[in-house]
Each structure stands twice: as C-alpha cells, then as structure tokens.
C-alpha cells in the first residue's frame, strides 16, 4: 500500500556555511530551506519559529540540549536587532553559552567566519 508523501523534520547532519539568505529562507550545502534555521553541532535544523514570535527558553530548547558543544550562540533576530529576554540569556549563561543578538544578515556573516575558524559556534537564524 503506498504511503504517500512523508514529511520529515528538515535536518542537514553536518556543519556548513550559509551561502545565501533572504526571500524567507537560506541556502547552504547545495540545498535551500524555506523558514528559520538552527545551526548546531549536530547539524542544521529547520526551526519552526513563528514570525514575530517570542524568543523564549522553549523556542531555543534544542540549543540548550546541545550546550556542551556551544560557546557562542548568534541570534539572527530578523531585519532588526531585538534584545534577548532576560530569562533566555540567563538559561544560556547557566549552560556556559554567551549569546549575541544581531540582525539575521550580520548573524549569518559572523557565523560563517566563526565556523571557518573552527569555533564552538551555533546560530538561531530567523528567516528574512
């Protein structure tokens, strides 16, 4: 019996620079993804982040789950810089992760540089 289309969570099992961003998505590793991304030590994951949603501890739970491999979290907050809520900053700091909010474009550029330097970096990138 045919199963039809199987929808799986978007996941690229490796670390790769972001080649392009805009139009609601990103390009990396000869692929494209529509929507937001979490770039973690375990790979690049589609991030079901609602447009205009709150940056909460729950929204970034995957980052906190992989804290051992992350020293710096770059948060691309969209076209404008948005401060991170105190509860989120505290949860990240408690796991030894420094956080840096910036526009998504700046976060992509900084992530690529830090990745090329083999730094323990992760990024939460809100699509623009």
UniProtKB/TrEMBL annotation:
<dbReference type="InterPro" id="IPR036748">
    <property type="entry name" value="MTH938-like_sf"/>
</dbReference>
<protein>
    <recommendedName>
        <fullName>NADH dehydrogenase [ubiquinone] 1 alpha subcomplex assembly factor 3</fullName>
    </recommendedName>
</protein>
<dbReference type="InterPro" id="IPR007523">
    <property type="entry name" value="NDUFAF3/AAMDC"/>
</dbReference>
<dbReference type="Pfam" id="PF04430">
    <property type="entry name" value="DUF498"/>
</dbReference>
